[in-house]
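As a warm-up, study this chain.
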Amino acid sequence: MHYIIQILNRLKIFNLSYSQNLIKTPNLHSSSLEKLKLKGCSSLVEVHQSIGNLTSLVFLNLEGCCSLKILPESVGNVKSLETLNISGCSQLGKLAGHMRDMESLTELLADGIENEQFLSSIGQLKHVRRLSLRQNSSAPPSSSLISAGVLNWKRWLPTPFIEWISVKRLELSNGGLSDRVTSCVDFSGLSALEFLDLTGNKFSSLPSGIGFLPKLQVLCVQACEYLVSIPDLPSSLRCLGATHCKSLERVRIPIKSKKGLYITLHESHSLEEIQGIEDLSNSFWYIHVYGRSHSPNKLQKNIVEVLFLSVSVAQK
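Now compare it with the structure written out below.
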């Protein structure tokens, strides 16, 4: 036993993934363990409190531990933890209270969790830079995100996100965001945000505040089938993904965009107008519009007129 303990103390990675019969994690005491992988342990119901003694742990993967209902309070003692993956832990309750003091925890992956108590506890994580709350696109969002949408989103998405000022990457795809819900939150407080994924949501216009994000470089709104227009984008934007937006009619290019710009709009069959191209005369830009059933007459006319106007102005 002493020999086994010595080996464990020297391990940097401990992989118990897909241990289907694992019900409780072992009692671990190690000053060298950096990664603990428990992905797909579907019978796991308890993480041993000794996890708080793993002073070098930077990565904890509990993805797919669908029987896990609670994390021990001692998780908050792992000050070195940087990445926590609890995606698919659908029964998980609220996060441990001590986790609010974890300054190193910068990445939280919590896809597929719709538990209201859990969602309400996320606001305490003030140092997270990447937050993923994506939902399963093949299944309709549950009542916690739709039927009670306004109440719950207001509760766990701080208005105006003051607590999440350091978040750089936010993933909210297929979350059931509708106009009724987005009218209650303001994204403008996410001043460090660089990547925003709103793919597959139900709003007809972008949530407020996105145009005021000074560092936003990538915006994904693919398959937002009710989205009609995309106005007021920030000048920092480098890439806009708006494919398969079947109701999209107008896109406004970011004003005074100084860097290269890449836009994909294919299979957005209702697209008629791209505004602001004239402001990109001194920039490199690429606009990809493709669709087998797309009738591009109005769109082509709009682009040709703008380009002709830009050339005429440049010649003068």
